[in-house]
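Section 5.1 Outputs to date
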Amino acid sequence: MAQADPKASEHRLFVTKIAPQITQQDVEAHFQQFGSTTDVYLPFIPGRPGHKGFAFVSFSGEESVQAALANAPHYINGAEVVVDIATARQPQLTGDQPAGPSRKVAPMEGRIFVTRLLNTMTVADVQKHFEQYGDIRDCYMPAIPGRGHKGFAFISYKDPASAKAATQELHQEINGTMVVVDAAMARSGAAAMQVAGGMSQPEVAPKTVPGRLFVTKIHPEITKVELEGYFGQYGELDDVYVPGKGAHRTAQRIAFVQFKVPGVAQRVTQQGWEHFVKPGA
């Protein structure tokens, strides 16, 4: 039996506010500019046309994840989407794997996960709609500073039966626009929330790699060779990665510089956060 590489799920993005007309191919084409994708999962609504408005995009390396995060905001076919880090996938149970405390996945009692919320929808709009199923304890709609919300919300009911009633209603409209409702999921013994189907919302912070610098605001005319020459003066380089499909220039205006000795990267940052690779750039 083949087993998936457990590290593969570490290089994963959670993408929300995906417009109904955007396809899986559109999502994949957009994120491939940041590196090789290994999987793009855009869940569909059971028994109805269309997707749920969010996706998980997996890359072959962490550099691609960081490149995508550094290039926000993102637009696919002219519509803005929101990109966050995704948590690791929940292990799937099989017949020869007994459920234990670290594997158990169950609906979070009294809580639902709502997606495909339009920019124009407010917390008050969402709360007003779902109050028809029972008294609400909390309505949480993550915000983007200065740019509205992320297109999804979590609603907690005082009575778990209210959450069950909300998820059983297949046709849900807020202000004339259809939204998608799922039971919120939680891993036993962990704080990470999950949406139905074993897929998780973003809560993991990007990893720090010893000896690596993340360089931003690079002048478009600076080449990879020039970056190697500049940072090579501080110490022996292991790699300089410039995102982009074969482009020798820094089209994304970012790069990852990896030194063989971790302490070198720290010395570079101690000299200041602004560096000039060549005059004027």
